[in-house]
Amino acid sequence: MLTGRESLVRLIGRRRRSPLPASLAALLSPSSPAPAQANVQGSGSAEAARDEAGSSSGGGAEWVPCPVCGESIRGSDYCVNAHLVDTVIVGRKFHENIELQEGARIIVERDPQNAKDHDAIKVLYAASEFEEMLGYLPRELAKILAPLFDKHYVECEGFVVRLLEQQLDSVPIQITIQKCETDDRSSDDLWENFIDAVKKGNFQRPNSARYQRNFNVMITDVMANHTHVFMAGYIDMLSCTDDPSEYDIKEILEVLSVPEMKEILKELPKAIRVAQVMDEALDDNNMEMVTRCIDLSENRLCTMSKIEIATSSQPLPLFFSRFSASWVYSKILTLGVSVYERDRRYTDAIRILKLLLRTVASDRRRGYWTLRLSVDLEHVGRPNESLSIAEGGVIDPWVRAGSKFALQRRVLRLSKPPRRWKVPSYADSVKRNIKESSWRLQYYADEGGGWQGTHSEGGVWMTIFGLLMWDVMFSDMEDVFQSKFQTAPLDLETDDFYKLRKDIIESQLKKIQDGMAEEMLISSWELHQGTSCRGVNWDRHSLADLRAIVACIGGNLLASLVRHLAVDYRSWSSGIPDLLLWRFLDERGGGEAKLVEVKGPRDQLSEQQRAWILVLMDFGFDVEVCKVSPVAKRR
């Protein structure tokens, strides 16, 4: 995926299908658009769509009433004493030897040993010798089917209806629920309950109940703290607005007296619409539209940056910058750089990168932009300028972590005489050797000395950080919590997180240094287990393992790592070595820990991973890179 694409998708979210305003449509639409094919309208549209779906799936049979509930089904699916349910596979499991295809046959069985859901029903791949599990039926459907399965009252099988573009999406399936021949009529009531539930429920949306509960919590909060939104004036204004999404903005614009502030607020939804069009154009491989979005964002970024600077009497907290149009346009342009680099349009990429560095001063993305600018300048044969850009990036306070390390390495490579005669002060640090081993992973548990370990790619560290810093993260600070649904303060990924909480953070770190980390961990786990918090995974790591980890690491090392994350969470929340190993050395509880970055035969360390390893070595951790080679097959 292009760098910046995933971030853009997260930004636009469900707004992708919202219509464009006329002003943007005029700017972005082709000069002579092809007429769209007319859609079927009126009362017959549903039937037409259904007929089309039937023909596309190979079933041209006429529609007949279901023998159980009377709903329309295809004649080819007509079964006596059976019922058809359209649903999905959730909790998808993947297997190397299974490539799921449309029409693949599936089997459904109970999973009574499932610890998370005693009503769980698993979906198996029928064509496999071992019937590997593909996932589960939605919980709402399993809850009404499980009693029938337990009484051996029904049998169930089905097939995959279609495969969606996104591999991780729930897989649509159709299952046939067949009643077994039996004289026992005690389960007839259960069957009737099942039929009623199928009529009323939609089992293709398995999470709707959870969304409804969340919505109820939100409404309760609004009624308690924001009752003014239900006042007659609000409701009347909302009902007379053609586009409800524009209602709040129109109301606020009437309050703003400075014309420039109105422009700033109106520009944000426009910027998000441009991001929407950019994403859709990339999906359609419409490079003409992609270029239009990039050009428009380039012009708007220049204009909006000047307006925002002119109207700001005092600087806003950094975490509010994401709600500005210039921030959205900078994300579009970052993705545009990736598009141009992919197409080897380095001159265009250089122009955009220089614009971003010139207009966006306080942003951690400056490290990525500076690195790409230095690389692209070298691509077009301008090594001297490339070196100057890299040297400037090294001393830029917003260039950190892997980007800074990569720029330092570029400076060392490009600054050979006669370009530069003086060796940079950081040369020895960057050139340090990293210990490597070629052991198989089983070595650590067997001959290597009985290590225990977890392969979490940093997840265990984020969990430990969240548990140890829980009271810090959720302390009462101004503006950082705008909703009770937040899993972290808004400033967690900014420098303000540490600056504004320095005293309480250092107090927590002192406790960790004094050997109280295990006690803090237990207390946080027992008080907050199950509560959502950024980085904390309650299911993946047990409390016993987490206690063992902090005990084996020791207070000083653990405090150093936690402080490093607290000071700059965003820059250092990725790239931590894959494997964390620990073991106790004696019965008194003394232990040791080791961090291992696992690499295959052709894998190389990324700059972020290399930067993390050097930082951990500075702290005093035992760190190494494990080269894993495939075992040669004997002939």
TrEMBL record:
One of its GO terms (biological process) is interstrand cross-link repair. It comes from the Eukaryota. Its cofactor is Mg(2+); Mn(2+). Residues 82-179 form the HIRAN domain. Keywords: DNA damage, DNA repair, Hydrolase, Magnesium, Manganese, Metal-binding, Nuclease, Nucleus. It holds the Pfam family HIRAN. Its EC number is 3.1.4.1. It is an enzyme of class 3 (hydrolase). Coiled coil: none annotated. Its main location: nucleus. Residues 28-59 are annotated as: Disordered. Residues 512-630 form the VRR-NUC domain. InterPro entries: Fan1-like (IPR033315), FAN1-like_euk (IPR049132), FAN1-like_TPR (IPR049126), HIRAN (IPR014905), tRNA_endonuc-like_dom_sf (IPR011856), VRR_NUC (IPR014883). Belongs to the FAN1 family. This is Fanconi-associated nuclease. It comes from Eleusine coracana subsp. coracana.
